[in-house]
Amino acid sequence: MSFLFSVAQYLLLQVQINVPPALLGIAVLFCGLLWIKGVPKVISNAANPLLAHMSLFFIPAIVAIVNFIDLIAAFPLALFFSIVVSTLVSLAITAWISQKLMHRLDNTDVNRDKPPREGG
Q1: Is the pTM of this model over 0.85?
Q2: Residues in Cβ contact with 28 at an 8 Å cutoff, skipping those fewer than 6 apart
Q3: Three-state secondary-structure class, residue 117
Q4: Which of these, 20, 27, 28, 37, has the minimum number of CB atoms within 10 Å of its CB?
Q5: Does residue 97 sit in helix, strand or coil?
Q6: Given CA atoms 82, 88, 90, 93 in this order, what sign does their dihedral have?
Q7: pLDDT tens, the chain, 120 aa long
């Protein structure tokens, strides 16, 4: 993973854009996984324990809200609507992409793992 971070830092220095290297490293990893059309067992084994405890990664963000209590109190309605609208837009985009991808699958791909039904 440090290799991907180093590649991302090099790319950022060459392109000179203001994006965190870790974020670009994740994008490079994602593109690499798409390129090889799968997730290697090494990455899967490392990711599974992290995914099992994913909620722990939100604790620093939740604790940091304390620093912005005055701002939250000053604009509660704007904050509420921005959260609701961004959530609804992201859900709509996710649903649209899911529908497009599901239509690309044919029935043989979907039912490949299921045994054939007996008795018709």
Answers
A1: no
A2: 4, 7, 8, 11
A3: coil
A4: 37
A5: helix
A6: negative
A7: 578 778 778 888 888 888 888 888 888 888 888 999 888 999 899 989 988 998 888 888 888 888 888 988 999 999 999 999 999 999 999 999 998 888 877 555 555 566 666 655
